[in-house]
Design a protein that fits this description.
This protein has about 140 residues and is α+β, with helices and mostly antiparallel strands. The chain is about 25% helix and about 45% strand. The chain has one domain: START domain (Alpha-D-Glucose-1,6-Bisphosphate, Chain A, domain 4, 2-Layer Sandwich).
Amino acid sequence: MADRTSSSITIDADRASVMAVIADFPAYPEWAGQVKSAEVLTTDEQGRPANVRFVLDAGVISDTYTLSYHWDDDQQVTWQVVEPGKMIAELAGSYTLNGSTEVTYELAVDLKVPMIGMIKRKAEKVIVDTALKGLKKRVERR
C-alpha cells in the first residue's frame, strides 16, 4: 500500500454528530467536492453502511469504485477498496475522532496507471483537506 496522507481538524460538535455526517454517504456530493455520487450497497448488523459505491472526480484521479467500511462506535471508521476502478487499484483510509472532536483523516491510494509521486500525493492532499473542511462545515451547520 502507498504512503498515507494525513491531516486533522477540530470540529465543534460531539462525536455522534460527526459520525452521523460521515455515515450519510448519499449527502457526500453536497460537501465532499470530489465525490459526484455515493450509493450505499449494503449495511452492517447495526444498520451502518458497509459497502458503498463512489463516483469520484478529483482532477487527475477520476473513477468509480466500491469501499468496505468498518465502524468502531463513534471513535473510528476505516475503509478499504473491495471493487477497484479503472484507475484506482488500492484505496484505504480512516476517520479517527479524538478528545474534543479532533478528526484525523488518513488516506492511501495506489493507482493502476503510472503517475508521478508528487502529483499523486498532491491529489491525495487535496482530497483529504477538502473532505475535512467540508465535514467541519457540514457538521457545524447542523
